[in-house]
Amino acid sequence: MIAIKGSRRKAFQLIRDRLTYGKRQPFQASASERGHGRTSTWTLRAMEAPTTIKEIWPGSALIIAVRSVGTREGRPIDETRYYVTSLRTTAKALLQNVRDRWSIENSWHWVRDTQRREDAHRYRERNGVQVLAGLRTLALNLLRLNGFHSIADGTEPVSHNVALLLRLMRCHGQESPQTISA
After folding, report:
1. Which end of the chain is more exposed for a tag (fewer CB within 10 A), N or C?
2. DSSP letters along 109-145, please?
């Protein structure tokens, strides 16, 4: 499954238009969720990928739109995301697949964006960008391997303590976070 964003202008517009204005009724599924300060209704629409999309992505079977409508911390949300997939399955299974994908986005990329402020970095050299991204990934993985579920809580004790950081690297998750932060 590939997420199609606005930067792929031609494909994005084609998929959006087909799923918005297409005459054929696409596959559909919905699910609702309430918790963690938000309510959401997810609606999936999918249809056979048009020839143009199949030429861009050989093996693609379906184009998908998933709309999420609800509230988050009292504010309204209304987001639609578009995908191309080679999966041939039910609309309900596709919706679950997309929701699982968003779960990864929320647990991994959200941390990188908010805790590590990765999007705010404006490095110009390609190698520098890759090296720093690799170091941030290493740091996040070390914290998670050592039992820290909160990256902010894990970063604070090691940010200025090289000896503690080296202990984290050696123990590989064999000690509890309480033991390490002592």
Report:
1. C
2. IHHHHHTS-GGG----SHHHHHHHHHHHHHHHHHHHH
pLDDT tens across 65-115, in order?
A: 888 899 888 889 898 889 898 888 888 888 888 877 766 555 666 666 666
Same domain, yes or no: 128 and 61: no
Distance in angstroms (rounded) separating the CA atoms of residues 167 and 51: 55
Alpha carbon 112 to chain centroid, angstroms: 11
pLDDT surpasses 70 at 1: yes
More confident residue, 181 or 121: 121
The b/e string for 152-161 (b: 16+ C-beta within 10 A; e otherwise) is eebeebbeee
Indicate whether 59 and 96 sit together in one domain.
yes
150 and 74 co-located in one domain: no
Please name the residue ranges forming H helices in the chain: 9-21, 51-56, 91-104, 110-114, 126-145, 151-158, 162-171, 177-180
Q: Structural domain of residue 41, as residue ranges?
A: 2-114
Are residues 28 and 14 in contact, defined by beta-carbon separation less than 8 angstroms?
A: no
Name 48's bridge partners.
62
180 pLDDT above the threshold of 60: no
Q: Are 171 and 180 in contact (CB under 8 A)?
A: yes
Q: What is the pTM of this model?
A: 0.60
Q: How many domains does the chain fold into?
A: 2
Examine the domain organization and report whether 110 and 124 are in the same domain: no
